[in-house]
Amino acid sequence: MTGLTADSWALLIAATLNAGTVVALASLGLLINERSGVVNLGAEGMMLVAAIAGFATVVHTGSDWAGFAAGALAGAGMAALFGVLVIWLNTNQYATGLALSLFGAGLSAFAGIKYTQEKLPERPHFDIPVLSDIPFVGPAFFKHHPLVYIAIVLAIGMTWFLMRSRAGLVLRAVGESPESAHALGYRVRPIRLAAVMAGGALCGLAGAFISLSYTPLWVEGMVAGKGWIALALTTFATWRPARVLLGAYLFGGVTMLQFQMQGQGIQIASQWLTMLPYVATIVVLVLISRNPTWIRINMPASLGKPFHPGA
């Protein structure tokens, strides 16, 4: 790694931001879910359905923004289905989330059969005038898809929303004690459904970003576990948006590091290098889990628990 040039470092940083954006968007969505007290294990399935929805939309319309809208709507629609089941019908959140993930994987594989050989229109190139021309800094930070910057703005905005806005405080109250929020007159179930759908829309954006920008093609199972990583990052971040970004870029950096190591000719089996991002995530979670009190203090008190109004 010592042989890397300044240009190589710039490309590595740029690739890290791109890879991290996928996980950041999905993690921010799941964070909103969990702040309302709902655990959704279906991120992988939602991202896969959104990926094929976005890809198919761009193939037929030629519009990237229509593709991202389709991905967000697909994610929100699947999340709405999940929300009705767990919030109104009181099905088990964990089992329903796993079912959603499996359903999404199967649905995306079926819907994507005829799109495997399809190609997207020529991909647009983005850069911020003047800033993108600065040596090293420009290629590293100012030649990205707008969603890379939107993810950062979302994390900042979400921090303000949760900590400073009235709506955010109500959402947190629902996640901490839905019974108390209900007693104060707040409609817990619609609030939770809105949070679940907003989270699904962000997971949908993440899925569409994969098939339209990160790796612009459709391949069955192309999300490749990133939905599960996003789920783990919400715990890693102790349910704080800024820490989600940190964890997402850590994952992105380790993901890109494997390619750099291969390019440098380091003699390690490719399977070990592919495992690196996931092993790093597991190690971090193990280290965090050594202090259960810290997690308990930060975790929404009603996370994963059903709410029965009037019970």
* Mean of pLDDT: 89
**Count of helix runs:** 13
CATH architecture designation: Orthogonal Bundle
Major sheet size, sense and barrel closure: none
Order of helices and strands: HHHHHHHHHHHHH
**Relative strand content:** under 5%
Describe the structure.
It is globular and about 60 Å long. It is built from 13 helices and no strands. It has 311 residues and is mostly helical. Helix 2 (43-61) packs parallel to helix 4 (93-111) and helix 3 runs antiparallel to helix 4.
Walk me through the topology.
Blueprint: H1 6-35, H2 43-61, H3 64-88, H4 93-111, H5 137-141, H6 146-164, H7 166-176, H8 178-183, H9 188-214, H10 226-236, H11 241-263, H12 270-289, H13 292-298
Helix pairs in contact: 1-6, 1-9, 1-10, 1-11, 2-3, 2-4, 2-9, 2-10, 3-4, 3-9, 6-7, 6-11, 10-11, 10-12, 11-12
Features of this protein?
globular, ABC transporter permease, cell membrane, ABC transporter involved in vitamin B12 uptake, BtuC, transmembrane transporter activity
Briefly, what is this?
By secondary structure, this protein is mainly α. The chain is 71% helix and 0% strand.
